[in-house]
């Protein structure tokens, strides 16, 4: 169904607001940024922001959701590429590392990971969208012979989700880049370990 001119303008305004918020919040955090600054940066009225999002906290949650959705779309695109499974895994790990680095070096992350609602949003995304990507990843790995056919998909999924439990902690974001890379490598090597 085609969008009307009004719907297109509304969508464009929402995107401009989300982009402005991401830029401002990652540089200065949620508390230091005012709605009037967001409105000026997005070139919209403050009333539009309140009409679309309700509050600054609701807006911050929407931005986190938008960021995570974009990251997941990137993973989906990588899985659809015509590359060997091992190369896809390397690209996915690099993308995950970049996303983690971006979040952990932003002022936005401190508030996000201390807020229970943000943590709930993160978990909800993982348990809806991420699981379908993990299952696609597992099926591709088994099809190419990179993952052990004898390990049930549910066991591999549980292993992958345990990585989310580790990387989703606020303390993890505070660790060094080397530590984060090490954790991601351990999980990826664990996938390729061959049992007896």
From TrEMBL:
Keywords for the protein's UniProt record, in alphabetical order: DNA-binding, Repressor
InterPro entries: Homeodomain-like_sf (IPR009057), HTH-type_Tx_Regulator (IPR050624), HTH_TetR (IPR001647)
Gene3D superfamilies per the UniProt record, alphabetical: Tetracycline Repressor, domain 2
PROSITE patterns to which the protein is assigned, alphabetical: HTH_TETR_2
Keyword Repressor assigned: yes
DNA-binding region(s) in UniProt: 34-53
SUPFAM superfamilies linked: Homeodomain-like
Lineage top rank: taxon: Bacteria
An annotated Gene Ontology molecular function: DNA binding
Domain HTH tetR-type, chain residue ranges per copy: 11-71
Pfam families linked: TetR_N
Transmembrane region(s): none
Name of this chain's protein: TetR family transcriptional regulator
Organism for this UniProt entry: Aureibacillus halotolerans
């Amino acid at each position: 169904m085609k969008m009307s001119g009004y719907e297109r303008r509304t969508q464009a305004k929402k995107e401009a607001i989300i982009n402005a918020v991401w830029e401002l919040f990652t540089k200065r955090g949620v508390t230091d940024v005012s709605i009037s600054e967001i409105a000026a940066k997005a070139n919209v009225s403050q009333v539009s922001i309140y009409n679309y999002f309700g509050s600054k906290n609701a807006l911050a949650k929407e931005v986190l959701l938008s960021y995570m959705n974009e990251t997941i779309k990137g993973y989906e695109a990588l899985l659809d590429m015509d590359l060997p499974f091992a190369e896809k895994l390397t690209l996915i790990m690099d993308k995950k590392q970049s996303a983690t680095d971006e979040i952990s070096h932003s002022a936005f992350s401190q508030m996000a990971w201390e807020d229970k609602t943000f943590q709930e949003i993160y978990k909800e995304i993982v348990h809806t969208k991420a699981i379908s990507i993990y299952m696609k990843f597992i099926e591709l790995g088994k099809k190419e012979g990179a993952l052990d056919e004898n390990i049930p998909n549910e066991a591999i999924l549980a292993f992958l989700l345990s990585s989310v439990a580790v990387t989703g902690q606020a303390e993890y974001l505070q660790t060094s880049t080397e530590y984060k890379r090490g954790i991601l490598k351990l999980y990826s090597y664990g996938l390729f370990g061959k049992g007896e």
